[in-house]
Amino acid sequence: MAKGMIVKALSGFYYVRNEEGLFQCRGRGNFRKRQIKPLVGDEVEFEAENRTDGYILDVFPRKNELIRPPIANVDQAILVFSAIEPDFSPLLLDRFLVHIEVNRIEPLIVISKMDLADAVLQEKMEQEKKRYEKIGYPVLLSSTVEMNEMEDLLPHIANKVSVVAGQSGVGKSSLLNTLQPELNIETNHISTHLGRGKHTTRHVELLSIGEGLVADTPGFSSLDFIGMEVQDLSACFPEMEERASACKFRGCTHIAEPGCAVKEAVEAGEIEESRYKHYQLFLNEIKNQKRRYDS
């Protein structure tokens, strides 16, 4: 028996890597009965007579798990958003950040295609960078194919399992190709009719890039808040979480309660009003979802 990590799942096979190399494995027969589904990123115990004929015997406990894309034990999410084509959307970025925060994954924001932006838009993106850095999020600005800027990403990847996510067409696959050209990941141009790119990634695979592992995935196919509770949401906004203990009432939702430290911080300009408005939108969405499911 040996231990390793699943780095790829395809057509019922799991590809497990350890210091001895890569092994093609199937799941153990009783996994279905035990409701165990191995995921890319899982640390597993396996046995193999040769490199193409192995069986996964056990899956070790996970520190986190994403449903779509199906991957486990993620340390970091690299959220790629473009300055233009498609246009940068703070609302969509905040939605992504909530999904990352609720899974206790560290986010890294990359704003791509800066070379396609005019001077006014470049200045706007610099301001967005400062806004998110003030909250505590690391932000990198990158051009379409600027290798020096891409190399700034390598220290963030080192010794971590990262997942790349973001809108279609923002340059996720191009970013990975620039970091490691031999990957030759398929990319597609933006559809000018729809304003978005086509999905080009078909399965989840952990790629060795620099000193880390990066998942080339189909991205988040769902960004709803199913499974989240109202009281969970403010913890996904770091600037609100750090002030919540100063609220007058425990379990404050930061909407209508008196003595709310979060609302006071919004009024004082310490919390961005736009972020607070996004919080309100997401809170209403969670409440409406619960009403539908409870009715």
From TrEMBL:
Record domain CP-type G: where: 63-223
Main localization, broad class: cytoplasm
Binding annotation for Zn(2+): 247, 252, 254, 260
CDD domains hit by this protein: S1_YloQ_GTPase, YjeQ_EngC
InterPro entries in alphabetical order: G_CP_dom, NA-bd_OB-fold, P-loop_NTPase, Ribosome_biogen_GTPase_RsgA, RsgA_GTPase_dom, RsgA_N
Residues annotated as binding GTP: 112-115, 166-174
GO cellular component: cytoplasm
Endpoints of the signal sequence: none
Catalytic class of the enzyme: hydrolase
EC number in record: 3.6.1.-
GO MF entry, a single one: GTPase activity
Domain EngC GTPase: 72-221
Cofactor: binding details: Binds 1 zinc ion per subunit.
Protein role: One of several proteins that assist in the late maturation steps of the functional core of the 30S ribosomal subunit. Helps release RbfA from mature subunits. May play a role in the assembly of ribosomal proteins into the subunit. Circularly permuted GTPase that catalyzes slow GTP hydrolysis, GTPase activity is stimulated by the 30S ribosomal subunit.
Similarity-based family: Belongs to the TRAFAC class YlqF/YawG GTPase family. RsgA subfamily.
Entry-linked PANTHER family: SMALL RIBOSOMAL SUBUNIT BIOGENESIS GTPASE RSGA (PTHR32120), SMALL RIBOSOMAL SUBUNIT BIOGENESIS GTPASE RSGA 1, MITOCHONDRIAL-RELATED (PTHR32120:SF11)
Binding partners and assembly: Monomer. Associates with 30S ribosomal subunit, binds 16S rRNA.
Protein name: Small ribosomal subunit biogenesis GTPase RsgA
Encoding gene, per UniProt annotation: rsgA
